[in-house]
Design brief:
By secondary structure, the chain is α+β, with helices and mostly antiparallel strands. It has 14 helices and 20 strands. It folds into three domains: about 180 residues, Galactose-binding domain-like (Jelly Rolls), CATH 2.60.120; about 200 residues; about 130 residues, Histidine kinase-like ATPase, C-terminal domain (Heat Shock Protein 90, 2-Layer Sandwich), CATH 3.30.565.
Length: about 625
């Protein structure tokens, strides 16, 4: 089996070329030297497509500034040379927070010529004001009333600057009760058009990866709903859709299209709980529930705990937000250990699908752990890569299901081959019955009739008459059996016609009146040969018993077929079975056939005899 096709290689090459183009586009961003004052470190640049990364020349100061008589923060225009101001670089969080919920960060702006100069603030916590020298130019939340602040998410901000911004002091005043505060990522200076261009370029990989994940999820969901009810397809769809949505949530372009509402933070919260659920379900379906159903208990416990934590974080964000996030991290750690150990056993035994899963799962964990450590300030800031790990994991699940589909296709193909062999064998049996045994029985019947004509009375005539009758019955039985073997003839209309003909010819010859009603629901599945033959045999046995022993005048029969059950009723007004019920007359054979069909045969012998057969409609009727 070929693992790679030409279109797949072309897709990989296209994505690689696109990434190279995006990397080349980053050359339009001017990066500063490692050290030096702001106004000295950044070169004078011009052009709306050029952007400066403001990484060096930053200073920070913990606490909040007092205000002068005019209500302006003193730290924005006075005490500029205070020793409380400490140098720092971005990206990175200001150290030494302690119990402070207020933080000031500032930088002296370099020069540049842009049509509409602006500051691009991407990663920060949580509320802030922006001052240019001592003038307030932008705010996100009322920092003077922290008790009234409500979480609004962390949308990016483009902060317009006046044309004469060069050399002025840009100060940020932050408030956050969260464990992170201030600016964590780079801050950019440039034109608004250049910022939007940069935003789209940097989001391209996330948009591609997120969209592909959503597409895979929708495709798997289509397979689950339309073609297969297998849980592994639902698990893949659930995981891929939430992972894709999670990735898209971290793009900046989404804010251009849908705004920076709190909705995206809800998406983020829900995805934290939904992504693991799909993964655990997939593991249970593909690799088993584990010892003592540990994997099944894991996803059941996850659902319960998720409901509780979601309630806490949505209703009591301020009080339990940090607690919930820490709990989620502990849950993720537990899931990583349990899943790795359980799937690792399968991989150790040589199961290929387990090895593929582990490769994708480890990529997911390692790449995600990198971004978590960056967010916590434990490791230096690099470009986020968690979305690559997520996509590799989704691809690994897709490959596993692809392999499963290929194996299923091979099994179906082999099963079809065996069915074809069985069909040919059955056709050979029918031919042998027709040309062999049926021919012999016909000859016996013919010879018995010829020999019987030589005897007008006596034991000889009776013997040959009996031989002739039995041979005719044998021929009829063989024809019935041949008929049931022919799938083209095994349908409800054909069965109804046979029952009607046999009942009429058998009972009316004995002077009994016979009537039968047929009720078959539309679009009900046709019977297979096993069901067809057993229903036919039970009916014939019952009619034969009535003809021989009932002394009935009227016989009524009914066949009802629905999508749920099959019911056969036969009622006569004869003498009943009396003490002979269950002692022969083919009754034991009829009950045995009913049991083989998974149904029940009941006989009531009061005021005649009533026989009722009820069979649940077999789900595997065509197998």
């Amino acid at each position: 089996m070929k693992l790679y096709t030409l279109p797949g290689i072309q897709t990989v090459v296209f994505l690689l070329i696109l990434q190279l183009q995006l990397a080349n586009a980053q050359n339009h961003i001017d990066r500063p030297p490692e050290s030096g004052k702001a106004q000295q470190a950044y070169p004078q640049i011009a052009g709306d497509n050029s952007i400066i990364e403001l990484t060096e020349g930053w200073e920070y100061r913990w606490g909040d500034s007092p205000k002068d008589k005019e209500g302006r923060p003193v730290w924005s225009n006075l005490e500029l040379e205070s020793e409380e101001w400490k140098p720092m670089s971005l990206p990175g969080w200001a150290p030494g927070r302690g119990d402070n919920n207020y933080l000031w960060q500032r930088i002296r702006l370099p020069g540049g010529k842009w049509t509409d100069p602006s500051i691009y603030l991407l990663s920060y916590f949580l509320f802030f004001e922006v001052y240019l020298d001592d003038k307030l130019i932008y705010s996100f939340g009322d920092l003077d009333s922290p008790a009234k602040l409500k979480f609004q998410g962390t949308p990016w901000h483009i902060i317009p600057l006046p044309a004469d911004f060069e050399g002025k002091l840009l100060s940020f005043r932050f408030y956050s009760a969260y464990y992170l505060i201030g600016i964590g990522d780079r801050v950019y200076l440039g034109s608004q058009s250049g910022i939007y261009r940069k935003m789209i370029i940097e989001d391209a990989d996330r948009l591609i990866v997120g969209s592909l994940s959503v597409f895979i999820g929708l495709f798997a969901l289509t397979l689950f709903l339309g073609f297969s009810q297998s849980k592994e397809y639902f698990a893949l769809a659930f995981s891929a859709l939430w992972i894709g949505t999670y990735i898209i949530r971290y793009t900046c372009v989404k804010q251009l299209l849908f705004g920076g509402s709190l909705f995206w933070n809800y998406i983020w919260v829900f995805s934290l709980f939904c992504m693991p659920l799909g993964i655990i379900l997939f593991v249970e379906k593909m690799f088993g529930a584990g010892p003592k159903s540990a994997i099944r208990l894991l996803w059941q416990a996850h659902i319960t705990l998720s409901v509780i934590l979601l309630f806490l974080i949505l209703c009591f964000t301020e009080e339990f937000g940090i607690f919930v996030l820490k709990t989620v991290r502990m849950m993720y750690l537990l899931y990583f250990v349990v899943i790795s150990v359980w799937v690792g056993f399968s991989a150790f035994r040589g199961e290929v699908n387990a090895k593929i899963f582990l490769a994708g799962f480890i990529s997911l964990v390692v790449f995600g752990l990198h971004d978590v450590l960056v967010g916590l300030g434990v490791v230096p800031w690099l470009r986020p890569i968690a979305h690559y790990g997520m996509f590799l994991f989704i691809v690994s699940l897709t490959v596993i299901l692809g392999r499963t589909l290929v194996e299923m296709y091979r099994d179906v193909k082999e099963y079809s081959r065996k069915l074809e062999l069985m069909r040919r064998e059955k056709e050979g049996m029918v031919l042998e019955l027709h040309d062999g045994i049926s021919g012999i029985m016909s000859n016996i019947n013919l010879l018995a009739e010829i020999a019987g004509k030589k005897y007008k009375t006596g034991a000889g005539k009776k013997a040959f008459s009996t031989i002739s009758t039995l041979s005719r019955e044998g021929i009829s039985e063989i024809r019935d059996f041949m008929h049931s073997l022919d799938d083209r003839e095994t349908n409800w209309d054909s069965l109804a016609s046979e029952l009607r003909h046999f009942g009429s010819s058998t009972l009316e010859a004995m002077g009994m009146k016979f009537a039968i009603t047929i009720e078959i629901e539309r679009e009900v599945t046709q019977p297979n040969s096993f069901l067809y033959l057993n229903l036919q045999r039970i009916f014939k046995e019952a009619i034969t018993n009535i003809a021989r022993h009932s002394r009935a005048g009227n016989v009524k029969a009914g066949l009802a077929v629905t999508h749920q059950l099959i019911r056969l009723d036969i009622i006569d007004d004869g003498i009943g079975l009396g003490d002979l019920q269950g002692k022969g007359r083919g009754i034991s054979h009829m009950k045995a056939r009913a049991k083989e069909l998974g149904g029940e045969l009941t006989i009531c012998s009061q005021n005649g005899t009533r026989l009722q057969l009820v069979v649940p409609y077999p789900k595997n009727n065509h197998t």
